[in-house]
Amino acid sequence: MQKPSITLFIPVSLTVETQNKLLRNYKVWQLARAMTIFKIQKVVLYNDNEPLCKDQGREGRFIKKVLRYLATPPYLRKKIFPLDQDLRLVGALPPLQPNYSPEEGEIPSGETYRYGLIMGTKGKRLMVDVGLKTPIEVEGNGKAGQVVLVLLTEREGIISGSLVDKRFIGGYWGFDVSLPEKDLAASIRSEQLDVVIGTSRLGKSVHTLEKEMLNIGNTAEKVGIVFGGPYQGIHDILSRVGLKSSEVIDYMINVVPGQGTKTIRVEEAVFATLTLLKYLWGG
């Protein structure tokens, strides 16, 4: 999905329905996998004030940390993330395998883009770890510890690099994670979106809104897609802060009308919704 730009809104209570630590990690992995498959640019983790989620801040930080770890190329993870109990089980998860991440040990040829970590400077040039045996010298400005996108050029076995801005080169370069520690309405307002779509079994069947959805895909630049929690839907979440869903959501859609289960898990709803919008919007 290249157009419009998509921001997902996911409640921090995503993982509270299970106490199994591996399953908690796996639920976050499913979210990361869906965002990578469908080229989602951003996810906002909002406070849904779920009574069964005793520490919203703690849950949000856990989800954000695991998402950031999964989105980081494997060759940079140990350098960016210190040992952490929250990340103890992520090694048991399948790899995301994004297109922008090279295979382990892969040597660049011709011109390729690759994420790197600035390790320091050498004269007026940066020393950047891009997953090779040694850091390479790169043209550009930056600070040690900063993750950057590098254009690598290989000629006759010699590799050089220069920093690039991913906003200007096209393609998909992973997702950003925001944890504003705000309720849903405040989180949506802070994103300056053109259209906000909510997902709910109480929403209108997406087939009855096909024209509206197609129009959004053709005209909107920034679209938010909101998902409810494992125990409460969007209507209930907004009512906790004294709001009706119509005050915050432009379109409330049901992407699985006549569902065969009593509930659809958040991560399942993400896949179902993005699959349908991918079909309608293309890209």
Structural write-up:
This protein is an alpha/beta fold. It has a 6-stranded parallel beta sheet with strand order 8-2-1-10-9-11. A 5-stranded mixed beta barrel has the order 3-4-5-7-6. Helix 1 (21-37) packs across helix 2 and helix 1 runs parallel beside helix 7. The protein has helices at 21-37, 56-71, 74-80, 184-189, 210-219, 234-239, 266-281; strands spanning 5-11, 42-46, 111-122, 125-129, 136-139, 147-155, 158-164, 176-178, 195-205, 222-226, 251-254. The chain is globular and about 60 Å long. 28% of the residues lie in helices and 25% in strands. The protein has 2 domains: 5-96 and 174-281, Alpha/beta knot; 111-167, OB fold (Dihydrolipoamide Acetyltransferase, E2P) (Beta Barrel), CATH 2.40.50. The N and C termini lie close together (5 Å). A hairpin with a 2-residue loop joins strand 3 and strand 4. It contains 7 helices and 11 strands.
Brief overview, please?
The protein is of the alpha/beta class. The protein has helices at residues 21-37, 56-71, 74-80, 184-189, 210-219, 234-239, 266-281, and strands spanning 5-11, 42-46, 111-122, 125-129, 136-139, 147-155, 158-164, 176-178, 195-205, 222-226, 251-254.
Shape: globular
Structural class by SSE content = alpha/beta
Name the helicity range. Answer: 25-40%
Quaternary structure of the protein? single chain
Features:
283 residues; alpha/beta; Alpha/beta knot; OB fold (Dihydrolipoamide Acetyltransferase, E2P); 2 domains; six-stranded parallel sheet; five-stranded mixed barrel; 7 helices; 25% strand; globular
